[in-house]
Design goal:
Belongs to the major facilitator superfamily. TCR/Tet family. The protein is mainly alpha-helical and about 425 residues long. It is about 80% helix and about 0% strand. The radius of gyration is 20 Å and the shape is globular.
């Protein structure tokens, strides 16, 4: 089997494919339901706000448990946390699917299944980032390249999600829930057979008190740029999921685009997000100057374009152009955030710090749909203008907190 890293036998092509399957599956597990929500509202008899809870319940469970999973992965090992988590995601899909299929009032059990999936997501997707760092040791260029592939898999999942969700729902409206379990099973098999975690040099993991002390020191020393990166993660996913929720509803109500056709239309901005993510991940190569430059450009583009989403809601072509620009901006931002976290935190704390970052991203995922369901009718334009202003504030934080000289001197002292 060909190896991506000749000097490191465990990093094979199939190892990377297996790792990339996790964000793909976890993204499908959430985003695939967005185009199906209007159908769920009719079939289950729930409101728009209640349907948004199907997305939010998954994310809240993940937010609360991701830091725990990150700590456990640092203590017990990445693979020992990832595999049980994927099994939980599989079980959650079966519960939600069976409840939708057999129960007269399935909403509560759908939420229970989604919470289980969220718990599974908390111990799977966030652990991939530190695991990539472990596999490539201190090779920033190869780490950035692999993280770009992982983030592209995540965004490719978002492209596939509306199409697959619409196709599955056209066959059986509850089939998307069962499909999540099938995808999780595939990922379990890949991880079990193809991911070989490098052995730790230390005989024993550090004690909990020392570990907590080290984390506090890390936040004290790196806190300014870490908080800036965390907030950018929240912003990116908040904008993305609020726009997707709005677009899904708007295509049906305003433009009478439904079913599989709607899935393909939703995939347009997401495809551009995926391409942007891939190109960015391939080109940053661990260079902090490039990373900061991409953060600045992405935030400027996102902050300007998001303002026009509401104003173009009645003109389909313009709406797709604007949301595609938003997608390009977010696609460029995400692999940059992954890279700056993974390449600048020590291995012993990488899992935990990465987990805080992943929790931050899930806050945006959790908040986007319910906020949009509340503001969509009366405050749409104002909410997107506020989003643009928040983006500009984050741009200021990036300028203040991400100091190129400090990162370069730290890299030289490795």
């Amino acid at each position: 089997m060909d190896n991506v890293n000749k000097g490191d036998e465990q990093v094979s092509i199939w190892c990377i494919v297996s790792l990339a399957s996790i964000p793909l599956v976890m993204t499908l597990g959430n985003s695939m339901l967005i185009p199906v929500l209007p159908i769920l509202e009719k079939k289950v008899g729930i409101t728009s706000f209640q349907s948004s809870m199907i997305i939010t319940s998954y994310s809240i469970a993940a937010i609360l448990l991701i830091p725990v999973a990150g700590y456990l992965s640092d203590r017990l090992g990445r693979k020992k946390v990832i595999l049980p988590s994927l099994i939980l995601a599989l079980i959650g899909g079966l519960i939600a699917g069976y409840a939708s299929w057999k129960m007269e009032n399935p909403f509560t059990w759908i939420i229970i299944g989604r919470i289980l999936q969220g718990i599974g997501a908390s111990g799977a997707m966030p652990i991939v980032l530190p695991l990539v760092g472990d596999l490539y040791k201190d090779d920033d260029e190869k780490t950035s390249s692999c993280l770009g592939i992982v983030e592209t898999s995540n965004t490719f999942g978002k492209v596939l999600s509306p199409i697959l969700g619409s196709v599955f729902a056209a066959i059986l409206w509850f089939l998307p829930f069962f499909s999540i379990s099938i995808f999780s099973l595939i990922s379990i098999i890949l991880i079990f057979f193809f991911v070989k975690v490098p052995k730790d040099d230390d005989d024993e993991p550090i004690k909990f008190k020392i570990f907590i002390s080290n984390i506090k020191k890390t936040f004290k020393k790196e806190g300014k740029w870490l908080i800036s990166v965390f907030l950018n993660g929240v912003f990116a996913m908040l904008i993305l999921f609020s726009v997707l929720f709005f677009l899904s509803e708007n295509l049906e109500i305003t433009h009478d685009i439904k079913g599989i056709k709607k899935g393909f239309v939703l995939a347009i901005p997401l495809l551009l997000l995926c391409i942007s993510s891939y190109i960015t991940g391939r080109n940053i190569k661990g260079n902090i100057k490039t990373i900061k430059r991409m953060m600045v450009l992405s935030l400027i583009l996102a902050s300007i374009s998001i303002v026009f989403v509401g104003f173009t809601k009645d003109k389909l072509i313009l709406l797709l152009v604007v949301t595609s620009i938003v997608g390009i901006a977010i696609g460029a931002l995400l692999p940059v955030l992954d890279a700056i976290i993974t390449e600048n935190i020590k291995k012993e704390e990488r899992g935990t710090i990465s987990s805080f970052y992943s929790s931050a991203r899930f806050i945006g995922v959790a908040a986007g749909p319910p906020i949009m369901s509340l503001v969509m009718k009366n405050y749409l334009n104002i909410s997107y203008i506020i989003g643009g202003i928040i983006g500009l504030i984050l741009l200021f934080l990036v300028f203040k907190s991400v100091k190129v000289d400090e990162f370069e001197s730290k890299s030289e002292s490795k």
